[in-house]
Amino acid sequence: MLTRLEHDLTMAEAARGRGGSRVDLLVVADMVQAGARVLDVGCGDGELLRLLETRGVDGRGIELSREGVNQCVAKGLAVIQGDADTDLEDYPDDAFDFVILSQTLQATRRPRVVLEHMLRIGSYAIVSFPNFGHWRIRLQIALGGHMPHTDNLPYAWYETPNIHFCSIKDFRQLCGVAGAEMEEAVALNAWGRRMRLKMPWWFWNLFGEQAVFLLSRRARPWRHLGAVAPAPTTEVTQQLTCALDGHESGRRESSHPLGQASRDRPRVHVRSLVQLAIICPT
């Protein structure tokens, strides 16, 4: 049975299931495999880390507020103080199996960069957020003429930490830009119950109060991150050199279309040269 609490460090009156855990955190925890290495970004008071700990997960956390860090440390959790917008770039590639951003995406200054770093650091990224496209929010703006106030968005506009609101539709577009593959998606209604999977996206966007996405990376977006591409290996450099030599030699023999060399030599396409040049910057 679902209940609501009047106060929570991160989400006021958030829907909660059995055991008192937030329902969105239960959904997140179900996506994580036992024994996995997890980084919880913006872990708050450590509620999710405690939940994952009971399921045999090796969890670490990073939290901006000193209050949240102190509460986590008091619970025996491995949490350090840090900023998702600036400190994720210090983590090495593939350091974790899962990187989680729970109800924090809308409070970051650079959501796209944060998501890309999550996909770089972990094999999978899990993101949950309040849906700004929910019908109740639309109604408050359209008819009430004021910034929305809901259970998942309890702050007044002049004191809210949220600076980048997004809808489920907006987040799906962000996944495409950031090179993220959607492995699983869950929409929760106002009482924290899962919405039917067969519902179309527009229905989720209209009636889902919050959403949880499990993502994997398609490719490493070096240019988006502003990072330096890795140095080319000797093998790649040799391939590029041979390709360029073969291309120039092929141009010289183009006057003999039936010659043996022209028939036997594999053709070098310009697209292949461009792809090699991208990973071998001068």
Characterization of this structure:
The chain is α/β, with parallel strands linked by helices and 282 residues long. The protein has two domains: 3-225, Vaccinia Virus protein VP39 (Rossmann fold, 3-Layer(aba) Sandwich); 234-279, no CATH class. It contains twelve helices and nine strands. It has helices at 23-31, 47-53, 66-74, 84-87, 111-121, 135-144, 168-178, 201-207, 222-225, 234-252, 260-264, 270-279; strands spanning 3-4, 15-16, 37-41, 58-63, 79-81, 96-102, 122-130, 180-188, 210-217. The chain has a seven-stranded mixed beta sheet, sandwiched between helices. A two-stranded antiparallel ribbon has the order 1-2. Helix 2 links the parallel strand 3 and strand 4. The longest helix has 19 residues, at 234-252. The radius of gyration is 24 Å and the shape is globular. Mean pLDDT is 76; it is low at 1-13, 220-233 and 247-282.
